[in-house]
Amino acid sequence: MTTSKGTIQGYNGIAAVDKEHQIIVEAQAFGSGQEQHTLKSILDGIRKRYRDTGIHDDILKSQVIVTADTGFSSEENNDYLRKENINAYIPDNKFRSRDKAFSKQKKKYGKRNQYNAKGQKKIIPASEFQIDAKNKICICPAGKSLWFVGESRPVKGKRKLVFEGNLTDCRSCQLKDQCMRNPSAADTREGHGRQVSITVTNGHTATDWMKRRIDSQEGKVIYGHRMSVVEPVFGNTGTNKGLNRFTLRGLDKVQGQWRMFCLVHNIEKLMNYGAIH
């Protein structure tokens, strides 16, 4: 499993939880730290489980609400959800910055662990540059114009614009040390000035569609319930049941261990609250 700390032999347990009773309706283990590719598999598992138990032929077609955290957000997943007409709310990793309710959060708390990061020099972010994507113009914090390097289209409906500062401007700039991770790169003729890139969309991508859903008042209310629905379940299996790591090797064995703990969680729910209809 590849993680931010390197590759380790490990697995990631994913669970889908019913809001009303906190019953786990689907559980799968994956040998990857990334979650984007697991969404379709989990949704297919939910469909199959509800169909096999005779509850519903296709529960996702009934417009049941599906929420997931930012780890499941991707253009591919959003495109799938839109095409399948699944009533889902999955925020991108910048949805808080668009919400006025959290406008003061970053200033008060800052980025987590920013002072503990090693090997990464903090520089003036691209957000401090004035970028006109339509006219392909970029002005740096020192008031100098960057030259337009080029444009690429990594995804349909998206454009990535790349700008670079002129060597003579960056070389003599008083903000050079704060703006460039390697200020000496501007001191030679073969070097480079500060580089900045921005990705813009035509407003019609699947991610744009999901952003409008999650940024709506209804979307904010719906997604606000996710924390109280699924996190207590992981707290129960991890803290109360002691499954803070998988103790077996091999996907089949780990899958069995994960589903066994999820089954115990569900049995406990039935024992405490009686039959669920």
Structure overview:
The protein is of the alpha+beta class and 277 residues long. It is built from nine helices and eleven strands. The strands form four sheets. The chain has a five-stranded antiparallel β-sheet, with no helix packed on it. It has a two-stranded antiparallel ribbon with strand order 1-2. Strand 3 and strand 4 form a beta hairpin. Helix 2 crosses helix 6.
> Helix/strand/pairing class, anyone?
alpha+beta
Tally the helices: what do you get? 9
Q: Name the poorly predicted regions.
A: none
Strand order, biggest sheet? 7-8-9-10-11
How much helix, percentage-wise, in residues?
25-40%
Q: What distance separates the N and C termini?
A: 39 Å
Residue share in β-strands: 15-25%
Based on CA inertia axes, which overall geometry fits?
A: elongated
The number of E-state strands comes to 11
The pLDDT mean sits at 90
Order of helices and strands: EEEEHEHEHEEEEHHEHHHH
The description of the largest β-sheet is: 5 strands, antiparallel
Rg calculated over all Cα atoms: 24 Å
